[in-house]
Amino acid sequence: MILEFIVAALKAAIPAGTPLLFGTLGEIYAERSGVLNLGIEGMMIMGAVTGFGVTLATGNVWIGVALAAMAGGLLALIHAFLSITLRANQVVSGLALTMFGLGMSGLIGKRYVGIPLPCRLRVAPIPLLKEIPLLGPILFQHDPLVYLSLLLVPLLWFVLFKTRAGISIRSVGESPATADALGVSVYLVRYLCVSLGGVLAGLGGAYLSLIYAPAWIEGMTAGAGWIVIALTIFAMWSPGRALIGAYLFGTVKVLQYRLQPLGVSPNLLNMLPFIFTIIVLLAGTGEVIRKRIGAPSALGIPYAREEK
Amino acid sequence: MRVRIEKRLILSRWMTLFTPILSLALALLVIAFVFWGYGVSPLLAYKRIFVGAFGSLYGLSETIVKAIPLMICGVGLAIAFKALVWNIGAEGQLLMGAVAATWVALYAIPDAPEAVLLPCMFVAGFLGGAIWGLIPGILKAKLRANEVITSLMMVYIASELVNYLVYGPWKGAEEWGFPYSSKFPSSAQLPRLLGTRIHYPTLVLALLLAGLVHVLVMRTKLGYEIRVTGENPEAARYAGMSYFKTVMLVMLISGGFAGLAGVGEVAGIHHRLRYPQGISPGYGFTAIIVAWLGRLNPLAVIVASLLFGGLLVGGDAIQVALGLPVATINIFNGVILFFVLGGELLTQYKITFERRRGE
Predict the structure, then answer these.
(1) pTM score, two decimals?
(2) How far apart are CA B129 and CA B202, in angstroms?
(3) Distance of alpha carbon B269 from its chain centroid, rounded?
């Protein structure tokens, strides 16, 4: 009985954590290249509204997902242009992106409010793997986008830590002048990483409006983009730990709904993820300091070739 | 051709004044395209915004009403941003100020005379906002936790706390089931200018605070330490300035000011605690742009807050008239901020085009 409850809760925690996982994987790449993008919330919600609108218009969820990713990527380019080319303050630029995304999505999505989605991605249990006791039902009975996010974790980890491209990204984030001297194009690497961050944030948003909800609700990201920023620190800029962090949050979210019938005030329960974000941030920051890992050294600092 | 971006050595006065205006104009041009794409005539939209905000005595008075919280929050944030402390949580600090003032007015000393009650509400509001600001401050200064995230999370927590109070223990018995607290006694209500909603004591307070902060930043040792910490933290440390002290001070001021703005809203406008969006349509967030557009200069923040007050009033007008969603105002916020940021490059850097050899 208790085991069943735990399995059901963990199974529900994965879809709840998947938008966060997509977002965090993207932000890890952006920050590894030295660019802090606080615009995740804006890119996510634009992904959510684009995915929903396109799916409604074309009747094909996959086209919706693809264009949501593109919308996120395009929005990220604004931040890239301001912070990389124009060397603007990254904190303010990211905030502007979030505000812009929240506003635009509200305007675009006004006509989608209350409209049901005609088609959905079906749950596709993976043969054989789904039979594994405990792990099978928790991990392998989901929709294809969950599997995509699960595949991205080892893939992005491998690229970041085991390939030349990964070395370039990390060196640009740690010491752009050195990377530049070695022939790595700092601007190109940063543009690519920030765009990838946007694409993944867009995917996370599409997951919210197309699968998790599935509906368009104004402001439906409700702070998920900011949780992503905290998770990136908690993950110590590594894809593997992003997975743990995202599903931890998914569990908190599930608990939030499961505790409600017990008579706890829903408003107090709504605080849980935000209090938990602060705790996770403190835990992450503490560990980063203790292990002397540190954020990418050039994080948040614009690179100017002439000022060498 | 090659583009070179070099840092300007001398900032021209003319440029610092002209750039924000040009940035604003370009932003409005881009937003015009958004309206056009949405099927709304941009000219009509801008006309409605302008007439709504500045075209009548009522519009003007409402513009000032909305400028008051923006001004107080903006001035406080300007000082925090000067020290490069990113307090993004003014919205939550404002709400906590409102909560503290409500507690004083309805539960702590509801029978006190006006001359005691109102000042006590402002003091409590300052403390409420300051505590909400000091928590991220202490986490940043002592544990190095990113204050952008912590201060923002505190907004969500404050917002849920207000919801909890007005739906739960503080729900007024005579409020027809609305998520409101009971009405404040008249001794807890701020006087208003005749026929308007301008609660002038808060306006006077806002102007005084702007002047005070200007003097503090420009003329005192504390202000000097704040500026040095922002411009060159290493130098500040070498000079023996306490980073902890500076962070706590700017969070105290910016949080406390936002709290005062919250007192003004409940004591001057609503006369009760309401659900969070009913107290503030995002004043704390818009104040970030107000502070930035005012280039962190308290006196320029006054002008910027009037501008954005007008935008909020005009925004309400077009929402009703043209059927646009509430979130439209966020497009203005975002795009204006983009252009203000881009415009800063013009003042701080010089862009030159030069031909490559052999071209």
Answers:
(1) 0.88
(2) 16
(3) 17
- Chain B closest-CA separation from residue A242 CA (Å): 17
Size of interface A-B (CB pairs under 8 A): 146
Q: A interface mutation test: which of B2, B140, B160, B352 has the most A CBs within 10 A?
A: B160
Q: Concatenated DSSP letters for B285-316?
A: HHHHHHHHHTTT-HHHHHHHHHHHHHHHHHHH
Interface test with B, best of A92, A220, A301 (most B CBs within 10 A): A92
Q: Per-residue pLDDT tens for A13-35?
A: 999 999 999 999 999 999 999 99
Q: Whose CA is closest to A171, among A180, A162, A163?
A: A180
**ipTM score assigned to the predicted complex:** 0.88
Alpha carbon separation from A236 to A23, A169, A274, A292, B145 (Å, rounded): 15, 16, 19, 11, 13
* C-beta separation of B72 from B257 below 8 A: yes
User: What angle, rounded to 10 degrees, do the helices at A164-174 and A2-32 form?
Assistant: 70
Residue A101 has which token pair?
């995304």
Helix (H, G, I), strand (E, B), or coil: what is residue A308? coil
Q: Which among A87, A106, A282 has CB closest to B325?
A: A106
Is B33 within 8 Å of chain A by CB? no
Backbone phi and psi for residue B112, each to the nearest 5 degrees, phi listed first: -65, 150
For residues B273 and A268, give the distance between their C-alpha atoms in angstroms, rounded to a whole number.
18
